[in-house]
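FIELD: query
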Amino acid sequence: MRRETLKHDRIRAHPDSAPQIEDYQWENCGNFWDEVMRTVQPISCVATQLSDIDRVVAELSIYYPEVNAQLINLWMILRQCLNGEIKQPLHGWNDAAVRELLPEPPDNLDEIIGIATETLYPKLEEILNTTSEYGSSLADLPSKIRKRFGDKTSEIIEKFKQDIILNWFIPFLQVWGKQRNGALRIEKGKLFIYTRNERHSEVATSSAWNVYLDATATTEYLSWWINIEEWEILTVEQEVPSTQNLEIVQIIGLGHLGKERSTLSQTRVAALKQELQQRHSSIKFIDWKCHKESADGAWFIDSRGSNDFCRVDALASIGIPFCNLGYLEILYITLTGRSIESGKTKVQIPIEIKEPVEEENDVIPYFEPTVSNDPKFQAFVDWSTSSEIYQALGRLRSACSSASLSHLRLEQKLTFYFVGDYPLKIPVYIVKACDITIEAGSRWEQTWFKIASAAKQLIEEGTTQLRGINTAIAQKVGCSAGLISKDYREALDKLLQSLLNPFNTTCKNSLLEDSLEAEARSVGSNLMPVVAQNNPFEILSELFSWQRCLDKDYWLWILSGTSINTQIKIIGSLLSILPSAWVSELIDKVTLMVQ
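FIELD: result
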């Protein structure tokens, strides 16, 4: 099948399935590389563990003990890192940290590499020729017998484990001695050796011509991927018509929104998505795979090279698609051959705001990220991140026509929402998440929204403080008004603080707690609005009894299921019966609590 396919004048395949350089006339053909920065894999990795090191030590001890003696310090450090004697940092040791731990390579490293190559190089003929132990070649046997002896997959795999795995040692020595571009990493009891993968670049350079398709590639980084000079690449760009049909809105205030999110962060994102869905009936979202819903797209999967969103009028990307920083370090070091300057610095990067922000909007026109002290590496990281964002923006196909549509997208009003605190290098409209919906606001924003809304409600209703409330309570419970003020003050503080800042629930760890939370949220959404209709004294009495009798988490779950408007109504009622000094002191406490 493969042989017949390769006879055609045009084929479509992944470069991994391409024939070897020596087995095909690449000089007579050309290649189109779609999404080249994703398709081409410019580095490869070999992983080794403690048992592999022990096998190399044993081999060298038998045949070249003098070489083993020169590497004794190397073996000691590697063993201590892999067996846990030296405590591993949270994310393992990167290239710089590994080199700092390891001793300096010996002066005669070239000689050691030559000896190791001769001693440890696997005998492939013996491994693949399963009849060599009988003094006969597998290829010379009749087909029926050859099939019998050739069907020893498990034995061959075991031999490869025993012999081929030793191939890690030569690349390690070359990378350690900086005789070959590459990077080292130790993590979770394994040593990883990264080197350049020449497979795809050799196919490209052996061909008559190549066309690389990637909207966010640059000639500099593409030249790293293909291992050619930058001047060898001719750039051809599509002329994009200037249109006003695409509005880019950046929603800030939710942070980076990575894979790991707190319960509060997830709640805020859910509220934001719900509000955007009410504004745009056909909106779709791109989020991390672990957070996306079935109808939405995922970063790095659907965010480039996809037409799945060419019919919607709005698309929102959630979070910043940071690649693994450790992998980017490895990629950069392996492809450039230069180390990365250590350390990080906080910098101010301005936002290109399309329209001036009003002062009362309280939007700071810049971000303050922490970046690498190495400007060239930081530029590489920025390109990697920004290219994914711009690719996601392009999924709307705002400047393209579609065969399945009867009109051009050029004439359709489209909106792209980028949700994340990250500086884009294009003009955007800026809006805070809490201005989209207060439920997407931070603790601080939600708390002060409740206070301001409750105060506004009291002013509009012309409510005066119910000065006789303490006397009324005293008559109800049968004690003095002074004693009631003292006893109820702490309870009132706790009640109002929980209403103003209901974000202190602990993590659930059982199905029972899941069920209890659902029940509590139902109470909040269904019964709390009924309670809010009562007069302040009845609200106070009812909520006091709830707070005393209910578990803390259950009470806070009730509040999390209560709408912001209902909470504001209750807060306004309670504030109306408090002395002004209490209100001022309470606000000071809540301010400190949410900051």
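FIELD: remark
The first strand starts at residue 30 and ends at 34.
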